[in-house]
Specification:
Layout: H1 2-27, E1 57-60, E2 68-70, E3 80-82, E4 85-87, E5 95-97, E6 104-111, E7 126-132, E8 139-144, E9 178-186, E10 189-190, E11 196-198, E12 201-206, E13 209-216, E14 238-239, E15 250-258
Antiparallel strand pairs: 1-15, 2-5, 3-4, 4-15, 5-14, 6-9, 6-15, 7-8, 7-14, 9-12, 10-11, 12-13
The structure holds magnesium ion.
Magnesium ion binds near residues 126, 141, 240 and 242.
Length: about 260
């Protein structure tokens, strides 16, 4: 009997709550929940999906490597440029942007060569360091690898934040086909006293498929050991020249919107 009474009281309270909410809703004017500022800036989208919008910083449009330098000595980037595509030069090593960035939206396209060989991590391995750092593993790596029919540890396959975040799906296209990454990068932030204010977060869409959904990183992405944070400011974006023996991969159509 007690339980029954309790249920009746709860039901009555719910009805009163709903009706008072509905009553206050009715008393509001539509204009009270409509805002006219701040006005979003006008951004003209690219002609086709993947094309740079009007406010993008174009990092590579196929014509030259002027926005890139060799990571090892900061001289002009010497990856191979042909047919509007840049290809890893393993004798040169990693390259990185001349400019540094904090939070951004990035579009980048890559192609694993159709004659790719090797297996596991030694098959089309490259990577995009979303903030390149001159210590430890070199920053926070979004893995590039051929996993079309190639298995490896899942936290190191394509679409992973290397050894830290397993992708939600394997959306790999065949070797020889162009593939896309669209990334939203929120850099870690520090307080003036050197303590961490907020952790890095990343969202990644691979070939139109969500593979990292606003994932929080625990630090950088080392090959050996645990991730860690060390204070840094705006940083370049770095493309990896991996030391394995498989054929080098290519990049094209790279642009970014600072956020
Ligand atoms: Mg890699």
């Amino acid at each position: 009997m007690k339980d029954k009474m309790k249920k009746i009281v709860l039901a009555a309270a719910a009805v009163i709550g709903i009706s008072s909410f509905a009553f206050s809703q009715e008393r509001m004017k539509p204009e009270e929940t409509e805002f006219y500022s701040p006005v979003p800036p006008i951004v003209t989208p690219g002609a086709h999906f993947g094309d740079a919008p009007s406010d993008a910083i174009v990092l590579f449009d196929g014509s030259n490597l002027s926005q890139w330098i060799n990571s090892k000595d900061s001289t002009a980037a010497k990856w191979t440029l042909a047919d509007n595509v840049m290809t890893v030069n393993k004798s040169i090593g990693d390259i990185q942007t001349r400019s540094s960035f904090t939070d951004y939206q990035l579009h980048i396209e890559y192609r694993i060569p159709s004659n790719i060989t090797g297996s596991g991590q030694a098959r089309g391995n490259s990577g995009i360091f979303l903030a390149a750092l001159p210590w430890g593993p070199g920053g926070y790596e979004l893995q590039v690898l051929d996993n079309f029919k190639n298995t490896t540890y899942v936290n190191g396959q394509v679409g992973s934040m290397y050894k830290q975040a397993v992708p939600l799906a394997n959306a790999s296209r065949k070797p020889g086909e162009w593939q896309t990454y669209d990334v939203v990068w929120t850099a870690p932030k520090w307080n003036d006293n050197g303590t961490l204010k907020s952790l890095a977060r990343v969202t990644v869409i691979h070939n139109g498929v969500l593979v990292q959904n606003n994932v929080t990183l625990l630090g950088d992405t080392p090959y050996i050991g645990m991730p860690s944070y060390r204070k840094h400011g705006p940083a370049p974006i770095k493309l990896q020249s991996h030391g394995d023996k498989s054929e080098p991969i290519s990049y094209r159509n790279i642009w970014l919107r600072p956020l």
